[in-house]
Design brief:
Elements lengths: L3 H9 L5 E6 L9 H11 L5 E9 L10 H5 L4 H5 L2 E7 L3 E8 L5
Parallel strand pairs: 1-2
Antiparallel strand pairs: 2-4, 3-4
């Protein structure tokens, strides 16, 4: 989340009210709640609803608990005030981590 992406957020999306982002990386570091919080506070304070989805391939040794520390960051006051929830879905070939409002917008 450096450089060009931050510039894009700051200069193009500054009036944005709802944000959906899907990640398909092998590294869950892009799903860093503290970095997203900083970005939202600095450049998108008007943002009302945040949807972040991270897909991770399952390997034979994979465990969801491996990412528990990363996911626990989404329980800070910033995310609680926005009434977001963490949802984890397991599928045959991947795990889907979702951060979204407690209630979907219609």
């Amino acid at each position: 989340m450096k450089g060009g992406f931050q510039w894009f957020i700051k200069n193009i999306l500054w009036k944005l009210k709802v944000l959906y982002i899907n990640f398909e990386y092998e590294d869950i570091k892009c799903f860093d709640a503290n970095r997203w919080e900083e970005l939202f506070r600095q450049y998108l304070p008007q943002l009302k609803n945040i949807y972040l989805t991270y897909y991770e391939r399952i390997n034979y040794e994979h465990k969801i608990l491996k990412n528990a520390g990363q996911l626990n960051q989404f329980f800070s006051s910033f995310w609680i005030e926005r009434q977001t929830m963490v949802k984890i879905e397991t599928h045959d070939k991947y795990i889907k981590y979702v951060i979204r409002p407690h209630r979907y917008i219609s």
